[in-house]
Specification:
Length: 239
């Protein structure tokens, strides 16, 4: 697999910026070492379309890079997971490429960075904003963390017969609460929409005090992804 071109999906602008500053939405852009990046926007439909575009453009391995929410209390902000399995809400299970994830763990371990590779990642079509919702999802699916896009990318990889890997850094911990009005104040790429944000804060002024903590959580996750890419490069340690 030494020469496989890797297509990488990132849902959020902040995630894509780890690889390429100011990536244009829904446009595949070349990276080093034959890799390519597509900023998809949030949700399974957007991620599936992005993965399909990358395959059409010649990708022969698919990865998704970004952040995830913790469902297990042991997962803390900034921890890395490369799940062995990805599960969607219908119960469909997709497996990560074992040689690829093992090589990632080996490279990160040599750099004294830990990544959990024995976890299951759950993909749902909408965020889980409350601790109660996260605990219920953990009880129902026995997953360690949750995102919105990995299963869609994994499905395209399975349909195309390509290796797949997900790499996620934990942003919100299990007991963190995500204010619904703030979630509604960003666009499909996770970028604040000023008019929506101002309106949300005007209606809910107590949320202003929560902004620094939320920003700190995202910064912690993004730092973990940057540290990973500094070790692996855009090929993400594919063997």
């Amino acid at each position: 697999m030494t020469s496989l071109p890797v297509g990488i999906v990132a849902a959020l602008q902040a995630e894509a910026d780890v690889l390429l500053r100011r990536a244009q939405p829904r446009c595949a852009v070349p990276l080093a070492d034959g890799c390519s990046l597509l900023l998809s926007g949030m949700g399974p439909d957007a991620a599936r379309a992005a993965a399909q575009t990358l395959v059409k453009n010649g990708a022969r391995a698919l990865a998704i890079l970004g952040v995830a929410g913790a469902l297990e209390a042991s997962l803390r902000n900034g921890m890395l997971i490369c799940p062995g399995h990805v599960l969607d809400e219908q119960g469909r299970v997709y497996s990560s490429d074992t040689a690829w994830s093992a090589r990632l763990r080996e490279q990160l371990g040599a750099a004294r960075l830990d990544v959990r590779t024995d976890a299951t990642l759950l993909s749902l079509p909408a965020p889980l904003p409350t601790s109660t919702a996260k605990q219920e999802a953990h009880a129902r699916y026995a997953a360690a963390a949750v995102d919105m896009e990995s299963a869609a990318v994994a499905a395209v990889a399975a349909e195309s017969g390509l290796p797949f890997m997900a790499l996620r850094a934990i942003v919100d911990e299990r007991d963190d609460e995500l204010p619904g009005p703030l979630l509604a104040a960003v666009d499909a790429f996770g970028r604040p929409v000023p008019a929506r944000l101002i309106a949300a804060l005007a209606r809910n002024p107590t949320m202003i005090a929560r902004l620094p903590a939320l920003s700190s959580r995202m910064n912690g996750a993004i730092r973990a992804l940057r540290a990973t890419l500094a070790v692996t490069g855009p090929r993400l340690a594919i063997p």
